[in-house]
Each structure stands twice: as C-alpha cells, then as structure tokens.
Amino acid sequence: MNYELRPVTEEEWPAYVRSVEAAFGSHPDDDDVASWRAVAEIDRTLAAFEGDRIIGNAGAFSLELSLPGDRTIPMAGVTAVGVRSTHRRKGVLTSMMRAQLDDVRERGEPIAGLYASESIIYGRFGYGLASLQVGIEIETAHSAFRDPLPDGRLDIVDKEAAAKVLPGIHDRARRQQPGDINRVPAWWDNFFKDKEKEREGASARFYVVHESEPGEADGYVAYRIKGDWPSGLPGATLRIQDWAATSEAAYVNLWRQLLDVDLVAKVAAWKRPVDEPLRWLLADPRRLQTKALTDELWLRPVDVAACLAARGYPTEGRLVLEVVDTFLDTSSRVALDAGPTGATCTATDASADLTLGVAELGAIYLGGTLASNLARAARIDEHAPGALRRADVLFSSDRAPYCRTMF
Predict the structure, then answer these.
(1) Contact status, residue 225 vs residue 231, Cβ threshold 8 Å
(2) Which of 3, 15, 309, 373 could form a disulfide with 345 if both were Cys (CB 3.0 to 4.6 A apart)?
C-alpha cells in the first residue's frame, strides 16, 4: 500500500482532527477543531496520506516530565494516534511510530510518553507501563477523620479567580510529583471553558482554593456535582475533576471540604494515585472503595544514557545495564553511577549486571515498577547476584508516579 507520511498543514488541520476523532468514535464540531488547534503543535503532527485522504494520524506535545529527586526531563507527549478502520493491519501504525520516534531523537528529547487507549498496542514499540491510577469512591456518611484538622483557610472561588491561581499551584505541585507534567496556557484556557457537553449531566465546575498562610495558596480542587434525590433524600455525587496540593495541610483540608459538601452522599474520582493517603486519614479506612486500577503513563526511553543521568537516586550505587531496543535497533550497554547528588551514565564494555528491554527500562524509570517483579515475570535477566536488589533500591521513589494531566 502506498501512502505519504508527513505533518499536516493549516489547511489540512480540520481533516486531521476529524481523522483523530473518528478513530475514537466521535465527530468533532467547529469548536472542537479550534480547541485542538489552540493546544496543538502542528509541526509535531504526523499523518499518513493515501492521495488526499488521511488514513492514519499521530501527534506529540513538547512536555516536561517530573522525575524522582526533584528533577525534570524533556518529554515528547505522544497523542492523537489512530488508523482508519479500513486500513488496519497494513503497517501504517508501525511506520508512524518509527517516524515519530526518529523525530523525537532528532529534537533531542530523551524520552517519549503516552496514555494508551488499549494496553496491548504500544509495548511492541518500546513503551513500558510506568505508572498506575485508581478510581475511588467513599460515602460521606462514613468519612470521619481519625485526627483533628490542621490549620488552613478554604474558599470557593469563581472560574475567573481560579484562572489566576490554579496554574501556579499546579506548576509547583507537579514538580514534587514524579510522573507529572507541565500545562501550557492554552491547556488552561480550554480547561476553564468548562464545556457543557463534557459535564455528563453534572454541574459546571466548582473551584476551592486552600491557603495555609494568608495570601499563599498551596492547594486547590475542581469538582462537579451530579444531583440525585432517591426517595426524596439527598443523594448527590461529587466528582473530582482536578486537584493539586503542595502541603500536607492543603491535602487534608481539601479532602475534608469535599466530604462535607451539603446534599452530597458520595465523593468519587476516576483518576487518583495508587498511594492515595486518604485511607490513612479515615477513622474507618475500609470505607474508601477502590473501583478501578488501570494503567496510566507509558514511557519510552529514546536516549537511554540521558534518561538515566537525568533522574535523582536515593543512594549511591552502580549498575551495568544491557538495554535491548529491537524496534529502533539501538541496543546499548551502559554503566550507571548514581547517587543523591547526581548521576552519570556512559557506554561501557563491562559485563552487564542486568539485561532488559527498553520497555522494561521505561517501566522502572519512575519507581512505579520493581525490577525484581519484572524479573519474576521473565522480563529482566539478572547476571550478577544482588543486581536486582540494587536496581529496586536505586530506582525507588518516595512517591508512586502519577500524572494529573491526560494528553
């Protein structure tokens, strides 16, 4: 099958968005086309053209990924990937993935990341499952806290006031959270549009801001309420939309606020970190129900040495890694010398301590997956006694990786 692979032009943008949305089973309107364009980097689009028809599409955002050790790294945020259903199984996706990763490498980005619509797709291109997310629910009638609340001030603000303060809180919070990413101003512009068709029958968003000290906002939550009156009794559900906190007081007090909203019987969130501390705040911890555990961020190292040198490590250690990359044919053997003050990673001829695929490296990179667990699944080979244990310690993180922002 013959097709041309290239970025789209401004004139081709509406057709590109229609192609992307069709792959996900929807039809965009003019507002959707404009909203996509506001956040997109058109030079990072990729489309497969059969004549003048788009039969496949992909894109990427230029993002910054937070790493353990209060570090960051440039990341290509892969998005908008799809192939026309009539043209599947013809190599279109594979060619797009290879072209995109070549472009990532040429741009000097050491790593690519994505959210996968289906978890079966991207492992063969070198993406590893780096973080998980949970969906949670709790009935407000059983949400008493074990201990008294810390000091702090809460305020419900309108979206104009929220737009002035939320971006700064998020940016400070995401730097503390491995796996999180930055948000550009256009992202926030779309967020505060709060389109009615995205509400699924619930209210417009409410915004609550927390201050531990007067005038110093250190947390926020955005939520919707979907009302219900079963048998005439208040039974609304509060659904968390977005959340960030840079202090323990903000975290605790924001949760208490959500659980105390009048007429709300249940608080739910479809996307929270797996190490959510709320359970440890509750007097009756079993009342916090986990409704789903799903894959979240997938990572694909492109420059292995740069990735390994970029993150922080909790202790001193050395590992020689044989990293196999069959998709890009760029396998390498590197020596990682790591510690709390920094790390170096260079090519070496020394004997490997561990052999792993580039997808497995992506999986352990943020500390969300133990190398020893992957070894138990026959996905990492240990050649030197104790190497798996060293890897578990070196790649650990004080927080489970978590990304607040889908892309």
Answers:
(1) no
(2) 309
pLDDT at 1 over 80: no
DSSP state of 181: B
Domain boundaries, the chain: 4-109, 134-293, 303-394
How far is Cα 245 from Cα 31, in angstroms, rounded to an integer?
Answer: 32
Burial class of residue 128 (count of CB atoms within 10 Å of its CB; 0-12, 13-18, 19+): buried
State in words which class domain 134-293 has: alpha beta
Q: Hey, is 205 helix, strand or coil?
A: coil
Give kind and range of the element (H or E) at residue 308.
Answer: helix 304-310
CATH 3.40.630.30 fits 4-109, yes or no: yes
Q: pLDDT tens digit string along 319-354?
A: 999 999 999 999 999 999 999 999 999 999 999 999
- This prediction has a pTM of 0.95
Which amino acid makes up residue 110? P
Contact between 210 and 217 (Cβ < 8 Å): yes
Q: Which of 74, 61, 38, 56 is nearest to 302 (CA)?
A: 74
229: pLDDT strictly greater than 90? yes
Write down the CATH superfamily of domain 303-394.
SCP2 sterol-binding domain (3.30.1050.10)
Catalytic residue of the set 61, 122, 220, 223: 122
Same fold across 4-109 and 303-394: no
Q: Give the model confidence (pLDDT) of 253-269 as tens digits.
A: 999 999 999 999 999 99
pLDDT tens track for 77-127: 999 999 999 998 999 999 999 999 999 999 999 999 999 999 999 999 999
Task: Specify the pairing of strand 206-213 against strand 216-226.
Answer: antiparallel
Angle 100-56-6 from CA coordinates, rounded to 5°: 50
Q: Rounded CA gap, 299 and 311, in Å?
A: 14
